[in-house]
Amino acid sequence: MITDTLKPPRVALGTWAWGDSGETGNGYFGSNFTQAELEEIADKAHTAGFTLWDTAMVYGMGRSETILGKVLKRYARSDYQLSTKFTPQAAGAGGNPMEDMLKQSLANLGTEYIDLYWIHNPANVDRWTQHLVPLLKSGKVKHVGVSNHNLSEIERADGILGEAGFRVEAVQNHYSLLYRSSDDAGILSYCRNRSIPFFSYMVLEQGALNGRYSPETPLPEGTNRAQAYNSILPQLKALTDKLAAIGQKQGAEIPDVAIAWAIAKGTTPIIGITRPSYIDGLVRATSMSLSNEDISDLEALAGAANVNTRGWWEQEM
Ligand SMILES: NC(=O)c1ccc[n+]([C@@H]2O[C@H](COP(=O)([O-])OP(=O)(O)OC[C@H]3O[C@@H](n4cnc5c(N)ncnc54)[C@H](OP(=O)(O)O)[C@@H]3O)[C@@H](O)[C@H]2O)c1
């Protein structure tokens, strides 16, 4: 029943931070954007060939999707791909909460279809996975994936979809130098063996690994990411110094190397993009190569940082 295979890009673009824009502001990232600023990011991304945009209805409760939809209006629908999510905890009380949330996402994004639709987390895999089937059959959803699922939950979801002639086509989990639980739990190798694209989120640990933040210049006060990361910034110094040293040899910067690492591990990073200049970093990241020694040095230093960056919404894998 699957008509075409999902072709993952080398890097996808994340827009969770875009949901902070608007009257409620701040929230997770402390970001506030004008539409013109975001259009500049999108123009630069599209010129560089980065065209898969990841969002979720719950990012700013519709704000991220709505802003993204407005920004992408300037392109033909066939020139970009949309990835958004059904979040079980935000399900409504109607007869088909997944269809209802999808309708809301389609309206927010101003589109007829979603290229890649995710179940955001594994709350009740048996209940929710089957609801993907009619959405796939209707054509409103082209491909489906699961996020924050552990290995047995991925297999269970795949079994449910398999009964209807579909399958889990992508997996999206937190995966960074500092947080490698999907590798340790065998999810990466499971995906590799079955040619399932693995999308890694929070590769830059919400900015904590981009080298711009330190105890002297912490993440924006009052935001969730400040609360999660400011206290561990001193422990990340040896790792970011090494990222800088590796980057210097190839004319690249700290975040570029962290992103190149995630690509070298066979994953598609979803990078939360907040400035036009960050697109240059993605171009560098996708054109650099890391030696096995670079990779093992980085992983050793990341382990030695001895931090646990698991998000509050994530389970142990
Ligand atoms: N499925 C899930 O449960 C889940 C959970 C989390 C995230 N996600 C997805 O993954 C995406 C990425 O995660 P995230 O945004 O939370 O974290 P992230 O990608 O690790 O970090 C994003 C932050 O890093 C900085 N940054 C981004 N690109 C940079 C570059 N090239 N150079 C320097 N700094 C850079 C920006 O901070 P400044 O603005 O401070 O510079 C940005 O806000 C999200 O937007 C979302 O689409 C999914």
UniProtKB/TrEMBL annotation:
<dbReference type="InterPro" id="IPR020471">
    <property type="entry name" value="AKR"/>
</dbReference>
<dbReference type="InterPro" id="IPR036812">
    <property type="entry name" value="NAD(P)_OxRdtase_dom_sf"/>
</dbReference>
<dbReference type="GO" id="GO:0016491">
    <property type="term" value="F:oxidoreductase activity"/>
</dbReference>
<dbReference type="Pfam" id="PF00248">
    <property type="entry name" value="Aldo_ket_red"/>
</dbReference>
<feature type="domain" description="NADP-dependent oxidoreductase">
    <location>
        <begin position="11"/>
        <end position="301"/>
    </location>
</feature>
<dbReference type="GO" id="GO:0005829">
    <property type="term" value="C:cytosol"/>
</dbReference>
<dbReference type="InterPro" id="IPR023210">
    <property type="entry name" value="NADP_OxRdtase_dom"/>
</dbReference>
<keyword id="KW-0560">Oxidoreductase</keyword>
<dbReference type="InterPro" id="IPR050523">
    <property type="entry name" value="AKR_Detox_Biosynth"/>
</dbReference>
<protein>
    <submittedName>
        <fullName>Aldo/keto reductase</fullName>
    </submittedName>
</protein>
